[in-house]
Design a protein that fits this description.
- The complex is a heterodimer of chains A (112) and B (112).
- With 112 residues, chain A is mainly beta.
- Chain A has no helices and 11 strands.
- Helices cover 0% and strands 55% of the residues of chain A.
- In chain A, strand 7 and strand 8 form a beta hairpin.
- With 112 residues, chain B is mainly beta.
- In chain B, the strands form 2 sheets. In chain B, strands 2, 4, 5, 6, 9, 10 and 11 form a 7-stranded mixed beta sheet that branches. In chain B, strands 1-3-8-7 form a 4-stranded antiparallel beta sheet, with no helix packed on it.
- Classes of the chains: A mainly beta (112), B mainly beta (112).
- The interface between A and B is medium-sized, with 24 and 26 residues.
């Protein structure tokens, strides 16, 4: 079955880059997602990437995908205190018939 | 107004009580999901529905039931609540052919 793994905690200084890593097990064609959860709120989709891509950039966010190693990363440039949140990696099979499988979430703490 | 609305936002109840959590959406999506979030365990899927007459069990359906009363409404019931059902519960929706999952703000349930 599908499994998504990510480290539970990451602490960075304000202004530095943050890199949050994720590994997944399903080798089928798939979408991979990054969701952000701020305190007291639901999950918000940050970005997603299809498995035929190896990089996607959106302002301060860069997603890198190594399909061979089944490794996904989210890089946040110039990390701000407002980036403090839990970040979830998730994967799905295209077509929408399989629910997303989420990792346990990485809690990012930004130190001023 | 939120696209995916969960009620109540918070609920405290006693062991053995029947509880219903409600979710409604204005996105016109056919697919709806219930997840629970526990610290360090991430999001786990309880039930999901692809249409009004379609109900599917997720990873942790024991002790829960659901009802899809209309396309826009998907409720989660705990027939006899127990303390280990204390968690943050999220409803989510997804459109057919879309890879994006949209979340409500969550219901924090505490079972004493």
């Amino acid at each position: 079955g599908e499994d998504v793994e990510q480290s539970l905690f990451l602490s960075v200084r304000e202004g530095d880059s943050s890199v949050i890593n994720c590994t997944y097990t399903d080798s089928s064609s798939t979408y991979l997602y990054w969701y952000k959860q701020e305190p007291g709120a639901g999950l918000q989709l940050l970005t997603y990437i299809f498995s035929n891509m190896d990089m996607k950039q959106d302002q301060r966010l860069t997603v890198l995908l190594n399909k061979k190693d089944k490794h996904l990363s989210l890089r946040i440039a110039d990390t701000q205190t407002g980036d403090s949140a839990i970040y979830f990696c998730a994967e799905s099979i295209p077509g929408g018939n399989t629910p997303l499988v989420f990792g346990k979430g990485t809690r990012l703490s930004v130190i001023a | 107004d939120a696209d995916v609305t969960q009620t109540p936002r918070n609920r405290i109840t006693k062991t053995g009580k029947r509880i219903m959590l409600e979710c409604s959406q204005t996105k016109g999506h056919d697919r709806m999901y219930w997840y629970r979030q526990d610290p360090g365990l991430g999001l786990r899927l309880i039930y999901y529905s692809f249409d009004v007459k379609d109900i599917n069990k997720g990873e942790i359906s024991d002790g829960y039931s659901v009802s899809r009363q209309a396309q826009a409404k998907f409720s989660l019931s705990l027939e006899s609540a127990i303390p280990n059902q204390t968690a943050l519960y999220f409803c989510a929706t997804r459109g057919t052919g879309s890879e994006k999952l949209f979340f409500g703000s969550g219901t924090q349930l505490s079972v004493l």
